Amino acid sequence: MAKLACYSVKAFSTPAATAPLAATTIERRQPTATDVQIQILYCGVCHSDLHFARDEWHFTQYPAVPGHEIVGRVTAVGSGVKKFKAGDMVGVGCLVDSCRTCPSCQAGFEQFCDLGLAGGTYGGTEKHLGTPTLGGYSQGIVVTEDFVLRLPANLDLASAAPLLCAGITTYSPLRHWKVGPGQKVGIVGLGGLGHMGVKFARAFGAHVVLFTTSPGKAADALKLGAHEVVISKDAAQLAAHAGSFDFILDTVSADHDVNALMNLLKRDGNLTLVGAPEKPLPVAAFPLLMRRRSLSGSLIGGLPETQEMLDFCGQHNITCDIEMIRMDEINTAYERMLKSDVKYRFVIDMASLK
Ligand code: NAP
Ligand code: ZN
Ligand code: ZN
User: What is the pLDDT of residue 2?
Assistant: First the structure.
């Protein structure tokens, strides 16, 4: 097989777990018949980017280019592309491909493909080139049509970028667990994911309680849609809510006590983890046994549900609260993210990558 022709784009990458990100040049394949070529305008900064850049999940291949909350303009399409044309504004999330034949792919749950995350936007395999996939901290990307998403025209592009991961990662479990009116729902952590969890749970009609370690975020949480705020380090505040929640969505990125949260669930209540801390979280038996509670996880969302989420956001005018940064501010942004100092998602203005 002849090697596919490539072109160069500027990007930010890291050569090692302990190194900062810095400017570089990477190769993208020239669009094939089914590909969409995208000029990236904005890319959100997910905490997963930081875990990945620093190899906290132990599968990073270097040099690594993070970024999976991508919005941009279509610059060219392959001859067989039907859904998009040059000039369209589009989104790309955490997946750029999957096997498409396994039961999960056939059911539209590409995130649970039998190939694992081989189709990841970064950390996967560029099957045309046989190289690791490189993410959205770059000027452009080429993605097969089926993994490109339509953006509702009424949404601000930069504020819509984090919907591609933070949005779908919170929307999907809230839908799966049928969160709605009459339910008391907890969202744990007010970061990129958490602030979208609050907005969606509120939009779905639940009574929303935000758990935070940052008392300074309480007023914002109420503005974002929470009915109540609990300072999770205060045992008395937790105790006041014991046994009262139908569902809790845990977005915390670091070590924390899930057993204390489990005790807040009602009979048959569920705690879903979306946070992916580096270290395993110890789970005690009794908080689960009591009241037949359950603990589960959830991973982003499939392509059909991601489009559904974007359309829902278009209809309800939901976007993310963002702080725009330049590409060369990314290392400082990571340090601020580690201090829980993000309000509530950094988004890179890719025009700054000159
Ligand atoms: P983020 O913006 O940094 O937010 C994380 C929030 O967690 C912080 O703002 C903070 O909120 C809280 N927190 C941090 N350290 C804590 C600690 N030690 N104890 C208690 N709370 C703490 O991160 P994000 O982008 O929302 O991502 C959150 C996690 O989800 C990451 O691990 C990320 O990798 C993962 N993730 C998973 C998926 C998936 O598909 N499952 C998708 C995307 C991201 P407060 O200040 O309010 O306490
Ligand atoms: Zn993400
Ligand atoms: Zn599959």
Answer: 55
